Amino acid sequence: MAPDPYALSCGWWAYGKVGLRRFFRLCPAEFRRQRLGHQALACVPQPQAWHQGGAPVTPVWATLFERLVLAYLKNITGPLLDPLQFAYRANRSVDDAVNMGLHFILQHLDKSGTYVRLLSVDFSSAFNTIIPTLLQTKLTQLSVPSSICQWITSFLTDRHQLVKLGKFKSNSRTTSTGAPQGCVLSPLLFSLYTNDCTSTDPSVKLLKFTDDTTVIGLIQDGDESAYRQEVEQLAA
Q: Which of 195, 231, 233 lies closest to 117 in space, CA to CA?
């Protein structure tokens, strides 16, 4: 009978427990108060094809630690997040973003002399654009403790990467930009990184779902100046 490719050996699990204990000794005290639900403790098999797609393969114990950080960050930053960011938030989905956009548009078009401009933006390799030092500044502005900010900066800097295809491996490279694709923390970190990307004019709405952004210009009497200014700032 062929061995289960997803089975965890006793030696691997022992290494995982040692690594987790080491992480908890080094992590800020705030993380130790977090609790993991049963779902967070489940080991989900990852298909081989998914590994070949370039997503990072991290130990289960490291993913569990990320979940502790994720829960802590959500508790702190939740009330401060842009209300027009609909991704990775409780009781919100892409359907809510679409319905909110339709509400803005239809409510505006009920008035005379109005029309709407709409621009959809999908940032290419969005998670790779995060600059850790700039993210740390933004997290500090969101009342995240300095110890947590420093840990996240350390988590994102001096990461070693390589590509493995079959029995072949590329040379290792070190990167200090971006957040790893596929990691638990990356989507929230990007949302926090772009949290201050909001409209300064009430006639322009920026709806966000992670790296998908829709700019809605509510135009009155042909005046598109505010809409065009927001588009230029978004592209800058």
A: 231
